[in-house]
Amino acid sequence: MKAARAENSREFSYNPQDSVSLEPGTTRLEVRGDGTTEKLKVVGGLSPNQQGQYVYAAEDARFHGANAFASAARTLALFEQAYGEPIRWSTGRQQLEIHPDNGQVLNAFYSRDDKGLFFFHSTDPVTGKVVHGADSGEVSSHETGHAILDAIRPGYMSSWSGDAAGFHESFGDVLAILTVMQDDRVLSIMAEQTGGDLRKPNLVAALGEELGITINHTAGKNATGGDYTRNAINDFVWQNPSSLPESAPPEKLSSEPHSWSRLWTGAVYDILGELVKQQLQQTQDVKQALSGARDELTEMYGRLMHQAPKGGFKYRQMAAAFIQSDLDQNGGKRSALLGKVFSQRKILGADSKLLEQASLLPQGSRRLEVTLDGPDFGPFSGAKVVSQESGQNLALTEDQAAAAELQARLKQLIKNGDILYTEPNSIPGQAQLFKPNGQPYAGVVRWQDGQMSIERVLIAS
Length: 461
Ligand SMILES: [Zn+2]
Hints:
Layout: E1 7-14, E2 25-32, E3 40-42, H1 62-83, E4 96-99, E5 108-111, E6 116-119, E7 121-123, E8 130-132, H2 137-152, H3 154-157, H4 162-180, H5 184-194, E9 206-207, H6 209-219, E10 230-231, H7 257-279, H8 286-307, H9 315-329, H10 335-344, E11 365-371, E12 384-390, H11 396-415, E13 419-420, E14 443-448, E15 451-456, E16 459-460
Parallel strand pairs: 3-4, 4-6, 12-15, 13-14
Antiparallel strand pairs: 1-2, 5-6, 5-16, 7-8, 9-10, 11-12, 14-15
Helix pairs in contact: 1-2, 1-4, 1-8, 2-4, 4-7, 5-8, 7-8, 7-10, 8-9, 9-10
The structure holds zinc ion (ZN).
Zinc ion binds near residues 142, 146, 460 and 461.
C-alpha cells in the first residue's frame, strides 16, 4: 500500500498586496497536518482557528505568519512550475524557515546562514500604525525570490559582482510582480488603472507600498520616489556601474543593489508591457491580456534561469542568456522583442545581431582569488578575496582583467563602508552584519590561522 502523505487543502489569510492597496483576502494551500509544507514552515508554528483554517483578523498576531507563508508558498509554486523542476534550498535544510515578526526593524531579509526569511515591524511616525513587513504579499514574495535564486544560483551570492547583486534584488521584484498578478482582484484593479498601458501607474508596478510609505515617513522625506518601496516603471539606461555613486536620490541610479536593480526590473517590465500590447491585438479584454502576458513572461523567466550565468556576471551577459534561452527553448519567438528592449535600455548594443549575443554568454563558472595589496586597502591590505565568476577556460589576459576588476570592486566597497572589519578571533553575530542604515554589509573579515580573508555576507534584504 502506498504511504499516504497527510496533505490537506487549508485556507490561509493572504494579501498579495498590502493594506494600502487591497483588503486582505484568503488563498487555499495544500499543507500537512501541522500547517507546513515540504519546503516551508513558520518558525513557532501556526495555530489554526476554530474552523481548522489559517485565516485571522488583520489585528491577530498570527496573520503575519499566515500571510508570509501563503505568499512564499504561492511564489515558490509559481516559480517551480515555470522552471519545471523542484528546487532545494541552499540553507542545507529541507524547509525554509519563516520568521514573521523578528523585532523592530524597518526591513526584511533572506539569510542563507540563518536558514530563512526574516520579517520585522516598525511604527510609522506619521500615522502611528505598526507596520509589519510580513503583511505585504509583495515584500514576502521578494524575500522568497532571494531564497529561490540562491537555491538555483548560489554562485551569485558567492560573487562580488554588482550586477549579480542587482539581479538578486530584481529577481525578487519580478517574482513579486508575477505572483501578485495571479490574483484576480489585483488584475481587475490593474486593468482599470492601466487600460492595458503599463506605463500608467498601477498597484503591481508599485512594490511594497505600505513599507515604502513608512520608510518615507521615518526618513522625513521622499526617499523612495513615491508611495512605494520601488516602482518598476522607469526609464533608466545602462551606465558604467563603477562611475555610479554609492547612494543617490530615487530618480537616479546608484551602485547600491536595490537602486541598481531597477534598471533590470524596468527592462523586464517593458517586456511585460510589450506582451500586453500584443495580447490586446487579439482581445479587447484587458484583464485577459494582462493574464496572458503574465503567463508568457513567467514561462520566459523559467527558461531564462536554465541558461542564466552560474557565477558573477554583467547585465549584458544575462540579457544574452535571456535571448539565447528564447532561441534554444522557444524557437526564437521573443528574441527580437528581447533584443529591442535590452538595446533601448543600453544593456545590449543597438547594432548587435541577435545571434552574436551568444558570444557574450559565459559557460560554467570558476573560482577567482585575489589578495588585496597596498595602501589603498587600509586595514584590509593582505586580505584574500574569493569570488565565484561565470565562465571557464579564460585566456590569461581575460583572467588578469577579471582579477583587476575584482580588486577595483573591493576598493569601491571598502570606500563605501560595505565591508565589516573584525579583529582576529572575533566572530560577529547576525546583528553585526548590518550597517547602521539597516542594509547588510556586502562582506566581512574572517580570520583563519592568522590569514585575513573577506567573505561575502550571505544576506539579501
Ligand atoms: Zn531584496
